[in-house]
């Protein structure tokens, strides 16, 4: 089986992303401010998210405030790129559909789950805002982003702007809309693969 130019490109960009991410892990461990998260973001967007993510899982799993935006973007881009790659490789077939209503009727647990997780995420953002006002123990950033990632991004976005909470943090103001795009692509993909 011969690889296409596109597949060679993906292999090269992912190997470079892995190497760059490994260097970045070393920089996090040994320097205070020499990280290259911006370059990792670019490599991820260009198709190297698998290599970058693999390196992060192997060498630098620690999430800190200074690298949260990079991690959110890399993970969202990874999911989007995997689905786009499967679409390009013809995994969906030839008949593309946008019949989301029928999909949601056939798989009624999906909109139920989506509604519940968005409500929970919205409430958790409100609880964290109240805790911030009263100087109480706060909900971890990873929890807020995690709830948004697993389907609650719309609830997270509403919670951000209704409660005026986390609107100054780029990993929320950029990350949550990116999660909404990612979730829309997942729904599109599922609609076309399951129907």
* Low confidence ranges: none
Beta-strand proportion: under 5%
Q: What is the alpha-carbon Rg in Å? A: 19 Å
Count of separate DSSP helical elements: 8
One letter per element, helices H and strands E, the order comes to: HHHHHHHH
Oligomer: single chain
Secondary structure: helix percent:
over 70%
Report the count of strand segments. Answer: 0
Distance between the termini: 30 Å
Keywords:
mainly alpha, 195 residues, flat
Describe this entry's structure for a reader.
The chain is an all-alpha fold. It is built from eight helices and no strands. Helix 1 crosses helix 2, helix 2 (37-59) packs across helix 3 and helix 6 packs across helix 8. The longest helix is centred in the N-terminal third of the chain and has 26 residues, at 5-30.
Short description:
The protein has 195 residues and is mainly α. It is built from 8 helices and no strands.
Write the layout of secondary structure elements.
Blueprint: H1 5-30, H2 37-59, H3 68-88, H4 100-106, H5 109-133, H6 141-162, H7 170-173, H8 175-194
């Amino acid at each position: 089986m011969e690889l296409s130019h596109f597949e060679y490109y993906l292999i090269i960009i992912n190997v470079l992303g892995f190497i760059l991410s490994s260097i970045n892990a070393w920089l996090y461990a040994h320097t205070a401010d020499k990280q290259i998260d911006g370059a990792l973001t670019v490599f991820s967007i260009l198709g190297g998210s698998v290599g970058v993510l693999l390196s992060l899982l192997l060498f630098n799993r620690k999430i800190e405030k200074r690298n949260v935006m990079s991690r959110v973007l890399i993970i969202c881009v990874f999911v989007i790129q995997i689905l786009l790659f499967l679409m390009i490789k013809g995994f969906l077939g030839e008949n593309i559909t946008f019949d989301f209503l029928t999909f949601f009727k056939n798989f009624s647990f999906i909109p139920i789950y989506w509604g519940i997780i968005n409500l929970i995420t919205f409430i958790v953002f409100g609880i964290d805002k109240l805790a911030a006002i009263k100087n109480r123990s706060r909900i971890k950033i990873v929890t807020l982003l995690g709830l948004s990632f697993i389907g609650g991004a719309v609830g997270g976005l509403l919670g951000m702007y209704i409660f005026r909470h986390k609107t100054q943090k780029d990993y929320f103001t950029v990350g949550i809309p990116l999660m909404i795009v990612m979730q829309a692509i997942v729904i599109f993909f599922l609609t076309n693969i399951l129907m």
